[in-house]
Amino acid sequence: MTQPSPGHDVSGLTMLGQNTRQPQSPEEAVLERVPNPHPGQNYCVRFTAPEFTSLCPITGQPDFAHLVIDYVPGDWLVESKSLKLYLTSFRNHGAFHEACTVGIGLKLAGLLSPQWLRIGGYWYPRGGIPIDVFWQTGDAPAGAWVPSQDVPNYRGRG
């Protein structure tokens, strides 16, 4: 296993570099954070999950989304393996699109206390209508380059 850079304490992490079991629900999943190596710098971190899956809480049918999460860190970064496991824990979770998208944003904002965070949930249609859900903590900080999410309107969402 590669050792972390000096000054980056990862001793409290439970997943990084370890065999981990897939959590069965978002409530069971654990999100972890690591110190930001560039505190005070306004930079944007982006995670894209083009194959996010959850279940319709009424029918139990699968729902699929392309999630884009952007944030300008404060003192913390989300540990990416824990984020991946957290996002995949929704595959057996029944919730509406809005609950999933906004809930993920709130959970990340609560964990990280970022300078700014936004999430775009681009949901594939069921019943012929795509439902896209957007949430952010406020205005992006001045001086941070935040690229457009550029997820196409539904037309096969490539």
Blueprint of the fold:
Layout: E1 33-35, E2 45-55, E3 62-72, E4 76-78, H1 80-88, H2 97-112, E5 116-123, E6 132-136
Organism: Teichococcus oryzae
Binding site for substrate: 78-80, 97-98
Active site: 56, 63
Walk me through this protein's architecture:
Catalyzes the NADPH-dependent reduction of 7-cyano-7-deazaguanine (preQ0) to 7-aminomethyl-7-deazaguanine (preQ1). Belongs to the GTP cyclohydrolase I family. QueF type 1 subfamily. It is found in: Cytoplasm. InterPro entries: GTP-CH-I_C/QueF (IPR043133), NADPH_dep_7-cyano-7-deazaG_red (IPR050084), QueF (IPR029500), QueF_type1 (IPR016856). By secondary structure, the protein is of the alpha+beta class. The protein has a domain at 33-136: GTP cyclohydrolase I, C-terminal domain/NADPH-dependent 7-cyano-7-deazaguanine reductase, N-terminal domain (GTP Cyclohydrolase I, domain 2). Helix content is 16%, strand content 26%. The protein has two helices and six strands, in the order E-E-E-E-H-H-E-E. The chain has helices at 80-88, 97-112, and strands at residues 33-35, 45-55, 62-72, 76-78, 116-123, 132-136. It has a four-stranded antiparallel sheet, with helices on one face. A two-stranded antiparallel sheet has the order 1-4. A hairpin with an 8-residue loop joins strand 5 and strand 6 (132-136). Residues 1-5 have low confidence and may be disordered.
